[in-house]
Amino acid sequence: MVQTLQNFINGEFVPVTGTESLDVVNPSTGEIVAQAPISSQADVDAAMAAAATAFKSWKHATPGQRQSVLLKMADAIEARSDDLVEAQHRNTGQVKAMIAAEEVAAGADQLRFFAGAARLLEGRSAGEYMENFTSYVRREPVGVIAQVTPWNYPFLMLIWKIGPALAAGNTVVLKPSDTTPESTLVFADIVKDIVPAGVLNFVLGNGATGAAMVEHKTPAMVSITGSVRAGIAVATGAAKGLKRAHLELGGKAPAIVFADAHLGKTAQEIAEYSFFNAGQDCTAITRVLVEESAHAEFVQALAVAAQGLETGNPDESKNYFGPLNNVNHFNAVVKVVENIPDYATIVTGGQRVGDKGFFFAPTVVDGVKQSDDIVQQETFGPVITVQTFKTEEEAVELANDVEYALASSVWTANHGVAMRVSRDLDFGAVWINTHIMLTAEMPHGGFKQSGYGKDLSMYGVEDYTRIKHVMSNLDA
Fold this sequence. Notes:
This is Gamma-aminobutyraldehyde dehydrogenase. This protein is 38% helix and 23% strand. By secondary structure, it is α/β, with parallel strands linked by helices. Helix 4 (96-117) packs parallel to helix 5 and helix 9 (263-275) crosses helix 10. The termini are far apart.
């Protein structure tokens, strides 16, 4: 049965005023599972008004009160994990066990971190920096936040957005991706009796809806996780109103493999980190730079590892990763592989898996050049390239020679090499002999075309605050 979805505004599910809608498709089957309406300007106005009204009281909630709400939310989503998993699986085709562990359970844990962070915000201590005048710093919420989440991790990115915003005392209007809205709405149903009305609002729609949110006069800040193109559009729209922007955008993560690494183990782990979630992860390894003397052995091991990661099996529990998210993205990944230069070699993969849905085989491409599009541009699929280097300096130069700067890793048994390379890699995250691991206590965010601002950690919470200097005359 195809259901019609609704917005969640001021604590209630409400129909949109617009008449247009979008098909929500299960990418494992190609079947339509829901109709998502496109919110009108009036719908956006209603959500912003609700958030603005709620902010008047929510900003005065004590840190302990905000913490209590976030902790109750975490408990509630764990209790209804199955509902969240089923809703998201319909929209993404992701392996259910992965959704349960890596999004729902991880999201609950991260909410608990943000709950604790709500009680740790502080400014500099008060002092008399001028004679007879006492100064102190207040750290305050920014206001109403407009947020947009992506389709690759719909639920987890929802938590990354709302967790720090609410912990800091802000209210939110959030638009989920038009292809993956259902887990967000199930979350709304789960927390509707926990969060005060208007503090959280969810509007459905397309790019035009997102633009209306960004350019609306109410939000003081906009936050998006998405493509560079979308990030530029959001930053441009925010600039028109001098709004703060928080952008977590694309990636083209390198893994530098030195000959002294344990090549078989490294190849297996790199394959797993590359093809996790079908490579639809902006931190996923997309480029391997391997020391020339180890190239042949490593590529053979990487191909074997890739071939052992299954996708497209009708018994989805046997799959390591699911389908690409939608037909347009599937076609884009196919085109990238079809346009590989003649001098490059597809070592394994390179083709569709099955005759329905948008499954694509784990693909390893060897012999590419630094200037190739497949090296420079984000593919966002289960495709990894291999290049060689001779020296440590060349490895770092090749790794840094892209417009993205979100994530990277170095694989070596040499501590000095690991420390020098991690210092010189121009990326927001560097892993040593591992990759993609995240913890709530550590910041996540990139440089260059990968955007600015941090998710997770106290740095992420501080991004959703403003600071105010207050000075008092002691002689008054």
